[in-house]
């Protein structure tokens, strides 16, 4: 599979797995709520419903980010992935966290009897298994695409859709544990406030996760720079070339998952390029033709001036090719000469 193809489908498997898993779990949890009347179970049902809707939004973003570049959007639609991930994160905050915390506070103010049966715990157990499975799928996807990098670094620079699934399913697994403990405590003690506290704790976890995802996707939409170590290595490649004295300005942006754009200004050393040409014996034949005729020499110089921009351009193309050989994800390069 080609690199570009693999980048285009990155995040699809975890999102589809989470979408199907959470959709099924949401139905089960709503059934559990109607059977038991538990506020924590309702919070978990709302949580799973919100996750299902959010993963549908992530899928929209992934599909739309694959659209080819047009005259109107010459750099493509890669940032659609970040936009829909941001909308998804806002949905988690307002629908998931907001509704869940409201339900918990309402249960504290107006306690309701919860009729807990073995069916409720069975539903929570099934949810735990499915959520753990989709969590593992997301984790493996991040590990596969992140290579040997530290996991903290992968979370910083990885696909936002896959990271969203990882966070959502991680919180979902914890949420099931919280719901199980709060329902069990309510059943054992007869104190209904445990059920309400469980709902509030689940809502707070969702809120914190949503804020993290909102901040991450906001940065990507604003044009977050490429990883620092990649930037440093690209500058090193540029300055290793004899024709480039220094890089005076370097700017970059992440355009999509695995797609970078860089722009830099360099101090160009024309003498180094000329020495390289002459070392290969360039202009030797032309010199022999005009060495005894000054007018022919002037004419040759005027004609040769037209070749200089092309020579410089070809050299810049070689440098860009060298960068892309090491970092294929750098799909747009703009090198300006000072």
Automatic annotation (TrEMBL):
Signal peptide: none annotated. Gene3D superfamilies: Cation efflux protein transmembrane domain. Its main location: membrane. Keywords: Membrane, Transmembrane, Transmembrane helix, Transport. One of its GO terms (cellular component) is membrane. It comes from the Bacteria. It is a multi-pass membrane protein. InterPro entries: Cation_efflux, Cation_efflux_TM, Cation_efflux_TMD_sf, SLC30A9. One of its GO terms (biological process) is intracellular zinc ion homeostasis. The chain crosses the membrane at residues 12-35, 41-62, 82-105, 117-139, 160-185, 191-214. GO terms for molecular function: monoatomic cation transmembrane transporter activity. Pfam families: Cation_efflux. Residues 15-222 form the Cation efflux protein transmembrane domain. NCBIfam families: CDF. This is Cation efflux protein. It comes from Candidatus Wolfebacteria bacterium GW2011_GWA2_47_9b.
């Amino acid at each position: 599979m080609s690199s570009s193809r693999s980048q285009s489908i990155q995040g699809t498997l975890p999102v589809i797995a989470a979408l199907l898993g959470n959709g099924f779990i949401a139905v089960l949890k709503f059934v559990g709520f109607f059977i038991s009347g538990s506020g924590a179970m309702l919070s978990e049902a709302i949580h799973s419903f919100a996750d299902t809707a959010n993963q549908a939004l992530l899928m929209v973003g992934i599909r739309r980010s694959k659209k080819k570049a047009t005259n109107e959007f010459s750099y493509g639609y890669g940032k659609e992935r970040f936009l829909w991930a941001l909308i998804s994160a806002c949905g988690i905050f307002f629908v998931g966290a907001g509704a869940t915390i409201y339900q918990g506070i309402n249960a504290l103010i107006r306690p309701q009897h919860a009729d807990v049966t073995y069916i409720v715990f069975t539903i929570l157990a099934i949810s735990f298994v499915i959520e753990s499975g989709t969590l593992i799928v997301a984790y493996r996807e991040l590990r596969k695409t992140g290579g040997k990098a530290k996991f903290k670094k992968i979370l910083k620079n990885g696909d936002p859709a896959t990271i969203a699934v990882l966070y959502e399913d991680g919180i979902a697994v914890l949420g099931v544990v919280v719901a199980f403990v709060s329902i069990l405590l309510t059943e054992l003690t007869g104190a209904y406030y445990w059920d309400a506290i469980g709902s509030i704790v689940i809502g707070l976890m969702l809120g914190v996760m949503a804020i993290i995802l909102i901040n991450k996707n906001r940065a990507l939409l604003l044009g977050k720079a490429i990883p620092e170590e990649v930037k440093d290595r690209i500058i090193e490649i540029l300055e290793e070339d004899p024709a480039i004295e220094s890089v005076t300005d370097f700017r970059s942006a992440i355009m999509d998952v695995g797609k970078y754009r860089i722009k830099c200004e360099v101090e160009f050393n024309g003498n180094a390029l000329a020495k390289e040409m002459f070392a290969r014996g360039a202009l030797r034949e032309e010199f022999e033709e005009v060495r005894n005729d000054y007018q022919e020499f002037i004419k040759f110089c005027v004609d040769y001036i037209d070749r200089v921009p092309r020579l410089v351009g070809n050299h810049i193309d070689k440098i860009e090719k060298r960068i892309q050989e090491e970092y294929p994800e750098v799909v747009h390069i703009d090198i300006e000469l000072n």
